[in-house]
Structure formats: structure tokens, C-alpha cells
Amino acid sequence: MGLRIAGRMAGQRLAGSAQAGADSVADRTGARPVTIDAATGSIAGRVSPRAAGRTTAGVARGIGGFFRPFRRVGGSIFLEVVGVFFLLFVVVFGNWAWRLRAEAVQGPEHAKFLVYAGMMLLFLYLTVSSFWRARRK
């Protein structure tokens, strides 16, 4: 959408500069120059909306084609970074669960141990699935 608007703005500016150039020639000579567009009755420098849309679509397709390999590699790297981030939580919750392992069977810390172990398993799953998805890409 932004590329389409930018293409229209560029077309309007080009049409405006062409019109301004023709006006300055008319001011110097006292008459407007006759062009093929003026003879046919159309406005000089005007671009049809369909042509502007096709041009914008072509530019967008070219830019998308250029960035396609980077998008694939970038997505894979993003998944690996997220996997490492989740691995940090696995280490933290695993450490806390390891400290409470002796009191896990009997004692007041049983609920905390279960929460830490559950969070460690959740983040372990997220880590493994993130690296697995990165490998599949």
C-alpha cells in the first residue's frame, strides 16, 4: 500500500515538474509549445492509474525477490535466537528445582518444586520446538 502511494506521489511530482518546465518555456516565448499530447487533448505527463499500479506491483515484486533469501535466513536465525532465550529460562528454573529436590518429596517446598519443574519442562519444550522449526526451514 505504501509503495503504491509513493509511486503515485512520484508520478504526480514528475507530472508537475514536466508541467512547470512547459510553463517556463511558455513564459519565455509567449506561447505554449505544441506537443503530441496537447494535440490529442490529453494532459501532458499524466500517468494512468493502471500503469502506476503495474509499475508499483513490478517494483514490489522485484524488492520481494531480492529480500526472499534474507527473509528465509532471517527467520531461521530468529528461531534459533528465541530457542537460546528459552534455554536460559530452562537453566534458571532447572537450577531452582535442583536446589529444592531434597525437600520435594516431603516438606513445605513441594509446591514450589513442582512449579519450577513444570516451568522448566515448558521452556524445554519451547526451546526444542524452536530449534526444530529452525532446522526445518
Shape summary: rod-shaped
Please summarize the sheet with the most strands.
none
| Rg measurement, Å | 32 Å
Put simply, the count of helices is 4
Low-pLDDT sequence parts:
none
Query: SSE order in H/E notation?
Result: HHHH
The computed structural class is: mainly alpha
* Average pLDDT, all residues: 79
Number of strands: 0
Helix content: over 70%
Proportion in β-strands: under 5%
Straight-line distance between termini: 28 Å
Describe the structure.
There is one protein chain. By secondary structure, the chain is mostly helical. The chain has a domain at 71-137. The chain is 81% helix and 0% strand. It has four helices and no strands. The protein has helices spanning 2-29, 36-40, 49-99, 110-136. Helix 1 runs antiparallel to helix 3 (49-99) and helix 3 packs antiparallel against helix 4. The radius of gyration is 32 Å and the shape is rod-shaped. The relative contact order is 0.09. The mean pLDDT is 79.
Defining key terms:
single chain, 137 residues, mainly alpha, 81% helix, 0% strand
Task: Please outline what is shown here.
The chain has about 140 residues and is mostly helical. About 80% of the residues lie in helices and about 0% in strands.
Write the layout of secondary structure elements.
Elements: H1 2-29, H2 36-40, H3 49-99, H4 110-136
Helix pairs in contact: 1-3, 3-4
